[in-house]
Design goal:
Helix content is 55%, strand content 7%. It has 192 residues and is of the alpha+beta class. The longest helix has 27 residues. It is an enzyme of class 2 (transferase).
Length: 192
């Protein structure tokens, strides 16, 4: 299997962490790609020009982080996930989406983007997502799946790219984040 990714994509990190947690580290060839520079290999695998892309052993290119994570979960023999676990994955994906859109908005439109209607909606979404996640009992479970990994990557991405969004008063999220960041799959994939 090949994973097309880059170092700073929270989406790619979530897919890579899921692959490592599912036991595919030795089988996974990392293909570093640059979606901002019309990377020919990435474009051939995903016409949307986004990372991550998982190329299966059969040569099928899977894009979209949630689909890749679900495929890896099932390929590793994971069971069908209950709706509440899929909900957690959706909350984690939503956190990543809102944070990433905020970063890209600022990159291309400056800090004033935060005051636009879309910028304000994204920041409000981050606040609501953090509150919902703080209240989510699934974060305390020992049995982890890709929903937990998406949430942890989203929190770490906030700290990496949007440190002014302070979520340190959310004790459950802080404890959850610390617990997952200590895992080998997270230490091996630190944002750079």
């Amino acid at each position: 299997m090949q994973l097309l990714l880059n170092q700073t994509s929270p989406y790619a990190r979530a897919a890579r962490v899921t692959a490592l947690e599912a036991g595919f580290g030795a089988r996974l060839e990392l293909v570093w790609s640059d979606p901002w520079n019309e990377d020919a290999r990435l474009l051939a695998a995903n016409p949307a020009n986004k990372v991550p892309v998982l190329i299966t052993d059969e040569g099928i290119a899977l894009s979209e982080t949630l689909l890749i994570c679900l495929h890896l979960h099932l390929l590793a023999g994971g069971s069908t996930l209950a709706a509440e676990r899929l909900q957690l994955a959706g909350l984690g994906q939503g956190l990543i989406d809102a944070a990433f859109a905020t970063v890209i908005g600022r990159k291309h439109g400056g800090a004033a983007q935060d005051e636009s209607v879309l910028g304000a909606r994204r920041l409000a979404a981050i606040g609501r997502l953090l509150q919902r996640l703080e209240e989510t009992p699934l974060l305390n479970e020992e049995r982890l799946d890709f929903g937990h990994f998406l949430v942890a990557v989203g929190l770490d991405y906030l700290s990496f790219r949007l440190p002014e969004i302070d979520w340190s008063a959310r004790a459950r999220l802080v404890a959850f984040h610390r617990r997952l960041m200590a895992r080998p799959s997270f230490t091996a994939t630190t944002f750079q």
